[in-house]
Amino acid sequence: MEIPVNGNTEVYGIIGYPVKHSKSPQFQTAAFFSLGLNCIYLPFEVKPENLQAAIEGVKALSIKGINVTVPHKEEVIKYIDELSEEVRYIGASNTVKNLDGYLIGYNTDSYGFIEGLKEILPVIHDKRFLVIGAGGASRAVLYGLIKEGVQHITVANRTLERVNRIIEDFKTLNRFIKDILKPVSLEKIEENLENVDVIVNTTSVGLKDEDPPLFDYSKIKKEHIVVDIIYKKTKLLEAAEKKGCKYQDGLPMLLYQGVKAFEIWTGKKAPVEVMRRVLEEK
Q1: Given this model, what pLDDT does residue 7 score?
Q2: Which are the contacts of 139, defined by CB distance < 8 A and separation ≥ 6?
Q3: Is the pTM of the predicted complex or chain greater than 0.85?
Q4: Rounded Cα distance, 163 and 155, in Å
Q5: 229 labelled binding-site residue
Q6: Which residues does the record give as NADP(+) binding sites (predicted)?
Q7: Is 140 labelled a binding residue?
């Protein structure tokens, strides 16, 4: 593919540490080219101590937009001029738009999760969810589920304090939040499996093959739908596959969060299938 870079090329990118493993440069650049946009998307590795300087650099170099990945999603908020609603609730921003030096922060992870989930579960609102974890990814997932109208969500975490903090932070999002979110400890997951339709892992457990299981995966039933936001077939998903469950890894979430970011930056409908094809090839 010929890359028509010239003096009018607009630059987008992703900042993180590390960031060399990111799949975003390939599928975002392919999306720009497929629509004939004179844009390119690059990875920028930024150490935590250099984050503020990097954001000032975005303004100084007229970089039109960036994605933000670990470990900067929460910290970057300090250096953004305006925050969207979902960022204020989730407490993290993964997408920034630069309007002539005025930075607007968004979080497209929530949208990405919901749109990905709809590929295997078109109707979400009437299902009962178990969400494992209470970090930034969990907050994005929970925000999306609540906005979709889900009424029953069990949130399992090692420390219940973090779940209770989410409930407190989300009380203006839905006045019935205390009835919707039920905190349980990780040890109680198996006791709650009978009462859920969808199991979602938002933790990093499973990223390494030697990670211990989150619970006894033999307790998963064929009727469960299992989602792991990690971009691989984890032991949790392997167990779901053996049981004959519908299951999904993190690639659809990655795809759709990128789709939303593209549309925020360009104002154009993203070429979803182009982006999907490149992402699956890589």
Answers
A1: 86
A2: 89, 90, 91, 92, 166, 169
A3: yes
A4: 7
A5: yes
A6: 85, 133-137, 157-162, 229, 250
A7: no
Domain boundaries for CATH 3.40.50.10860 within the chain: 10-107+253-281
Taking the chain (282 residues) in runs of 10, the rounded mean pLDDT of each run is 78 96 94 96 98 98 97 97 98 97 98 98 98 96 98 97 97 96 97 97 94 97 97 96 97 97 98 96 74
Q: In what order do the strands lie in the sheet with 152-157?
A: 181-185, 152-157, 128-132, 198-201, 225-228, 246-248
In this structure, which topology does domain 111-249 adopt according to CATH?
A: Rossmann fold (3.40.50)
| Catalytic entry in 73, 97, 127, 260 | 73
- Catalytic residue at 73? yes
Regarding beta strands 152-157 and 102-106, do their DSSP bridges make them parallel or antiparallel, or are they unpaired? unpaired
Distances (CA, A) of 64 to 6, 34, 71, 114, 275: 16, 19, 21, 26, 20
CATH 3.40.50.720 occupies which residues in the chain?
111-249
**The listed CATH number (3.40.50.620, 3.30.870.10, 3.40.50.2000, 3.40.50.10860) that belongs to domain 10-107+253-281:** 3.40.50.10860
Q: Is 69 annotated as a binding residue?
A: yes
Q: Supply the pLDDT for residue 4.
A: 73
- Structure tokens belonging to residue 267: 């104002």
The answer to the question of whether 30 is labelled as a binding residue is no
Structure-token match 């690059």, residue found = 42
